[in-house]
Design goal:
Structural class: mainly alpha
Largest sheet: none
Radius of gyration: 19 Å
Helix content: 25-40%
Order of helices and strands: HHHHHHH
Shape: globular
Distance between the termini: 52 Å
């Protein structure tokens, strides 16, 4: 931290802010900056969330669903879309708290989609309305839930339309 920044911080808060404290605060705030976004880099995701959820499917950015959807999902892990994805209570609390803090609240995800499925949300259907039904059935795609099939950098939080590559 520069002398000017330290002086400014001292004047504003009445005490000197240590550079390490400033970096810690910044590191904690950055993941929150991705809240409310369908784009969240993997580096900003809770490690436990990535480890547990990405073991079976892509770790979807939490901003793709409202908190109510994530809450129901985490409470029903024993029947997670036809699979038992149960976790111990401490892990459920940790991941649930993080999902609630980073869930979408903006207009696009204000309402929970049917069955809390991202692929049944009105914004998802609108963004994918030009995709022919046969595309979802291709072996390389499998289903609308397989974001990585077309959004090749989805696991990095990048869903940019310019990088979409639909498999043949």
């Amino acid at each position: 931290m520069s002398h000017t920044a330290t002086t400014t911080a001292r004047a504003r808060f009445g005490r000197r802010v240590r550079p390490s404290a400033a970096w810690l605060a910044l590191a904690c705030a950055l993941p929150a900056a991705w809240a409310d976004s369908r784009e969240m880099p993997a580096s900003a995701m809770l490690p436990a969330y990535k480890q547990e959820c990405a073991a079976c499917h892509m770790a979807y950015p939490p901003g793709m669903l409202p908190a109510s959807s994530w809450s129901r999902m985490m409470q029903g892990l024993d029947q997670h879309y036809g699979t038992d994805a149960s976790l111990d209570a401490a892990m459920v609390r940790q991941i649930s708290t993080w999902l609630a803090a980073h869930a979408g609240t903006y207009k696009r995800v204000r309402e929970a989609p049917p069955q809390d499925r991202i692929t049944q949300s009105s914004w998802f259907e609108r963004k994918h309305r030009e995709v022919e039904p046969a595309v979802w059935k291709r072996a390389a795609v499998g289903s609308p839930a397989n974001c990585m099939a077309c959004h090749t950098r989805a696991d990095q939080g990048d869903f940019d339309d310019d990088r979409v590559r639909i498999p043949k």
